[in-house]
Amino acid sequence: MAADLVRRRVTVLVATTAGCAVAAKSVTATIPIVFVNGADPVELGLVASLNRPGGNVTGTTFLTRELTAKRLELLHEIVPGVWSIAYLVFPDVAGVENDIREVENAARILGVRLTMLNVTTLTEIEAAFATVSGQQIGAVIASNTVGWLALRTQVAALAASYSIPVIYPFHENVEAGGLMSYGASTTDACRLVGTYVDRICRLNSFNNFDSSQHSTQQN
Predict the structure, then answer these.
(1) Which CATH class name applies to 64-181?
(2) 40 Cβ partners below 8 Å, 6+ apart?
(3) Which CATH class is domain 2-63+185-218?
């Protein structure tokens, strides 16, 4: 899809996940790319650094991994005496291996047993909650992915039906009925991406106008 958009000579590419941003960068080094995701853009090779991205890529990041340990701590405090927690993971998300290591380290420090459950669809999420309930796991951490946003209403209802406390990376999950969240605002991040896109489009229009004027003067 990214390659097709490049062939169409779009003015700017907007990538709403880490995987989309990596795909976009792999097909163009000239068309501006603006990303919004929760992974580390430096680690993914999208930018040279956070303060000086360089190249044709810029954007915003939630840096959700850095908050994973804190989520586990908060959940541990909210559910006193919990000794077993499940981590529901979308396995195909870019950087997921590092996210898993982060939450495993945090669980080890707190002395909590961690159970990893891979999910990608609502059916798999339903099965995961059934497993959590059947194995008497005390609570759930939702992994660092925007995949939870699309299913936030259904997941909140599932958690409530099983009486399982869940902590999410995004406040939108709480607005949909979830228990708690700890993380950056995706709304603010997307709004900032919109301002970046606006600047790029305005600059592109100015450059096209300036080139046209220069060509007219030469003629």
Answers:
(1) alpha beta
(2) 61, 63, 65, 95, 98
(3) alpha beta
**Domain spans of the chain?**
2-63+185-218, 64-181
Residues 6+ apart with CB under 8 A from 49: 42
Distance CA 5, CA 172 (A): 30
- The one-digit pLDDT tens for each residue of the chain (219 residues) are 999 999 999 999 999 888 889 999 999 999 999 998 867 888 888 888 888 888 999 998 877 777 888 899 899 888 888 899 999 999 887 778 888 888 899 999 999 999 999 999 999 999 999 999 999 899 999 988 878 888 999 999 999 999 999 999 989 999 999 999 998 888 888 899 999 999 999 988 756 545 444 444 544
pTM: 0.74
91 φ, ψ (degrees, to nearest 5): -70, -20
Residues constituting the chain: 219
E strand or H helix at 107, and its extent? helix 96-110
